[in-house]
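Exercise 7 asks you to align residues with tokens for two separate proteins.
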Amino acid sequence: MNEFITGLMEAHGFTKLLSISVLPNLAIFMIAIKLDRLLAARGIVTATLVYALAIIILRFAL
């Protein structure tokens, strides 16, 4: 497991993997909007922004 993460970090693939992992949030967000679950949609957007902030920090820190 550590070798996998180390390999991703050395190949600068870790931030790319995190970026792709945010895509399912889009589907969940659209479902929440369709079902009129606006508080859930707000939470999904907040989680996505936290992911984006982590990705930006990791991309420029590494």
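Second protein for Exercise 7:
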Amino acid sequence: MHVHLRQHIRTCLNCKIKISHPSMEDIYATTEDLSDTGVFIAHPDMAKLTVGDVVFGQVQGLSDNDDAPVLMMEVVRISSKGAGLRFIQE
């Protein structure tokens, strides 16, 4: 029996996030799971993106003035529920 072990541990973390891409309106969505290398964003509009697209994400609601860092991420997987994104180190 073959068991697939993930390379990076996933943490179930639900937080609000804004995803920005030039081809569409900003998406306000919820993170579903998070690892050191990426995050899954649950929102049906994420399926409008294509693998390889670069998006920008900013966690919402951390402080009153929404000054959370903006993270650059690449779409690596798309499903009907949303998209898996890989963090890009600048």
